[in-house]
């Protein structure tokens, strides 16, 4: 029985997103993946995978043509790390899942590869800096952690252009890799990316996305397991301000035995038309006995006019698992927390700042690189200060 047949057999039916627009139920694993751009029609926004996204603003990235610029990408780290250029199709741990990813695959001139040697234990992180210069560009990054290695790779995205990119992550058997992807482009920048990770036997991946800038940021993170005993921790933080759209889409494909996945994403939103979207898909295949998985999304709406959409999905094809679950919650400040802090003499604005900082701390604290953590806290503080100004202006109006 296919995944779709399994879902329908349990009572799920086709559904509609509006009059005249029936959308048939489709399992996440059955959606099209291809290196061929022609396999993906230009979306109109009614498709399941695009219905939350402002597709009109992405028109240039849907075009199957060369970019107008070559983004500046450089990497540096400890001496043991190998940084080199590769053909885009040298690894193929990633298969594009939408039109923009397929265009990026075909239009990227080459891939930048960061390779951690077998059994290397890096005490300092590898830094990959990606700067969009104002035009439209494509990129491709490969990160490979050799067998039994330990490393952290930080990808820092800045700039003002439109950037489409693919990231391939391969975690060798017994390796432990942390990848931190930071999006902090300017207020008019657009970034659409697909990250695909393959986790080896008894290997561990910590994948962290931090989105603090950009007019539109849409990141798709996909994980699959190459052997038993794999462990994936997928963490995310975002802070969307007025007019920003920050979207995260995840797919964890459990097909090996005794693997784990834990997903935790948190978002804060402030300002008119601030928007966040989180889609969490987990598939436990029939052969994936012993799986343990949980996904959680929480959103904090700080002002009127902001909106968060959260859609967790879980497909289970075997009952022989350790556990599986999902949850999501979206709300405003906890009045009890604010009251508690204010009764101790803390002004309301400061109390709100403390609540939001605490909301994010359990994720940012796991990055493990002090200078990065401090910088992110500073950026969040600046955003909270702007939010306080917005709230004060609204109160006077």
Automatic annotation (TrEMBL):
Ranges for region Disordered: 1-29
Residue intervals of the SUF system FeS cluster assembly SufBD core domain: 138-359
InterPro entries: Fe-S_cluster_assembly_SufBD, SUF_FeS_clus_asmbl_SufBD_core, SUF_FeS_clus_asmbl_SufBD_sf, SUF_FeS_clus_asmbl_SufD
One Pfam family, short name: SUFBD_core
Cited SUPFAM superfamilies: Stabilizer of iron transporter SufD
Biased amino acid composition, Polar residues: 1-15
Family statement drawn from the similarity comment of this UniProt entry: Belongs to the iron-sulfur cluster assembly SufBD family.
PANTHER family reported for this sequence: PROTEIN ABCI7, CHLOROPLASTIC
Descriptive protein name: Fe-S cluster assembly protein SufD
């Amino acid at each position: 029985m296919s995944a779709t047949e399994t879902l329908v057999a349990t009572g799920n039916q086709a559904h509609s997103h509006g009059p005249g627009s029936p959308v048939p139920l489709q399992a996440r694993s059955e959606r099209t993946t291809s290196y061929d751009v022609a396999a993906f029609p230009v979306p109109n926004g009614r498709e399941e995978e695009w219905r939350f996204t402002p597709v009109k603003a992405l028109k240039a990235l849907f075009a199957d043509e060369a970019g107008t610029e070559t983004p500046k990408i450089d990497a540096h780290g400890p001496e043991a790390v190998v940084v080199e250029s590769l053909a885009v199709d040298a690894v193929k741990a990633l298969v594009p899942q939408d039109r923009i990813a397929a265009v990026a695959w075909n239009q990227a001139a080459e891939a930048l590869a960061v390779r951690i040697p077998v059994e290397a234990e890096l005490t300092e992180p590898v830094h990959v800096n990606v700067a969009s210069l104002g035009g439209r560009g494509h990129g491709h990054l490969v990160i490979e952690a050799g067998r039994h290695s330990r490393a952290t790779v930080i990808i820092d995205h800045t700039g003002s252009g439109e950037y489409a990119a693919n990231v391939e992550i391969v975690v060798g058997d017994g390796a432990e890799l942390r990848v931190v992807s930071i999006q902090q482009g300017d207020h008019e920048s657009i970034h659409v990316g697909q990250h695909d990770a393959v986790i080896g036997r008894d290997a561990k991946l910590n994948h962290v996305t931090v989105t603090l800038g950009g007019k539109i940021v849409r990141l798709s993170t996909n994980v699959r397991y190459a052997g038993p005993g794999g462990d994936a921790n997928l963490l995310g933080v975002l802070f969307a301000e007025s007019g920003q759209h920050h979207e995260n889409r995840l797919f964890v494909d459990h097909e090996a035995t005794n693997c784990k996945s834990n997903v935790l994403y948190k978002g804060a939103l402030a300002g008119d038309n601030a928007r966040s979207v989180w889609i969490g898909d987990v598939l436990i295949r029939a052969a994936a006995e012993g799986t343990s998985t949980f996904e959680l999304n929480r959103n904090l709406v700080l002002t009127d006019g902001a909106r968060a959409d959260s859609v967790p999905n879980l497909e289970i094809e075997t009952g022989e698992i350790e556990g599986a679950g999902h949850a999501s919650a979206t709300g405003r400040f906890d009045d009890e927390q604010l009251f508690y802090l204010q009764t101790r003499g803390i002004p309301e604005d400061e109390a709100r700042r403390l609540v939001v900082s605490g909301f994010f701390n359990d994720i940012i604290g796991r990055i493990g690189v002090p200078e990065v953590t401090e910088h992110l806290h500073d950026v969040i503080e600046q955003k909270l200060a702007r939010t306080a100004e917005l709230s004060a202006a609204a109160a006077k109006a």
